[in-house]
Design brief:
Chain lengths: ~180, ~150
């Protein structure tokens, strides 16, 4: 058993929003184990940590992937929640990996300025089970569809896996999995 | 000098930074224990709800399905086979962690039994049993190598 699952990682991606959070669990061999949206009913952040703790106990992830919001415009509550999740996980001894937007787009082979919808579309193609969740492109006057949280969470996990794959190669000058 | 760099060039400029980042942030290669059950994964892929699944299983509630998915309860053989029919995956795929655990336990016992049989007189029956036990042990080794 040990041999079969060597070098595999089970990564939980979390993407908090104002009303809840999206999550996705991906196993090393690109198996999407679970995904979904959780709604938080209280405004305090304790509920968020309790809900994430349930997921952690259920899936025992190797690491938690979160979005790297350094230098980006984000809501105060969102930044606070990300910091709290990170602090809580580190307190529990679970490693947190911060994944930037560029890492996600790089892992998916998209241009650096690709839209969120393009990222979601690419993920829906890679993981057919998510195709039914893909919302239509957002219009400028519309607020973002809640379902995008799932794609954001999966994006950070996929970006994290991309970083792992890239780190495994351990050779500089290799871009997108092929030698330059 | 050239003006705006192309996307291709931007990628190549980005790569070393990306590489430096991953060197700092990532060493996640480790062995994971498979989940006891992947029922939830397979069910969600089909898009069925707990209640719909319970209906297909007959005389069960959505709560029971949820308990099976969270590995709080193990289904009886009849229900497990029904899961196999509905989700189009073998029971060993649906209960991957449990299967791996059982396989390991059986292999450990097979090694013990094989060792004791090898000390006995080599009749045709004993040889047949040893061959079977070695196949069981070999099966696990082959799966590990995959």
């Amino acid at each position: 058993m040990a041999e079969k699952y060597r070098d595999h990682a089970r990564i939980l991606g979390i993407d908090p929003s104002t009303t809840g959070f999206g999550f996705a669990v991906l196993e090393g061999n690109n198996r999407l184990v679970d995904w979904g949206l959780a709604t938080l009913y209280s405004k305090d952040d304790e509920e968020l940590l309790v809900r994430i703790d349930t997921l952690v106990r259920q899936y025992t992830p190797t690491a938690i992937a979160l979005e790297d919001v350094t230098g980006r415009k984000k809501g105060v509550r969102n930044i606070r929640r990300l910091a709290q999740v990170r602090a809580y996980m580190e307190q529990r001894g679970i490693r947190c990996v911060l994944v930037s937007r560029a890492d996600i787009r790089f892992a998916l082979g998209l241009a650096e300025f690709a839209t969120k919808h393009a990222v979601a579309e690419r993920l829906a193609t890679a993981f057919e089970e998510l195709a039914c969740l893909l919302p239509p492109p957002r219009r400028p006057w519309q607020s973002e569809d809640r379902r995008m949280n799932v794609f954001d969470a999966l994006g950070v996990v996929y970006g994290c896996q991309g970083i792992r794959r890239f780190a495994k190669m351990n050779r500089p000058g290799i871009v997108g999995g092929s030698q330059s | 000098m050239s003006t705006a760099p192309s996307t291709h060039h931007q990628r190549h400029e980005k790569a070393p930074l990306f590489f430096l980042n991953c060197g700092v942030r990532c060493s996640l290669n480790m062995t994971i224990v498979p989940l006891t059950t992947y029922l939830k994964t397979y069910r969600k892929r089909t898009g069925l709800t707990h209640e719909e699944m319970a209906f297909l299983l007959g005389s069960m509630s959505g709560t029971s399905v949820s308990r099976h998915e969270n590995a709080q309860r193990l289904p009886i053989l009849r229900t497990a086979l029904m899961y196999e029919v509905i989700l189009d995956a073998t029971v060993s795929e649906l209960y991957e962690g449990l299967f791996a655990e059982m396989q390991e336990a059986v292999c450990a016992r097979a090694r013990g039994l094989c060792a004791s049989l090898e000390r006995q007189k080599r009749t045709l029956t004993v040889q047949k049993k040893i061959a079977l036990l070695q196949a069981i042990i070999g099966k696990e080794v082959a799966q590990e190598g995959k």
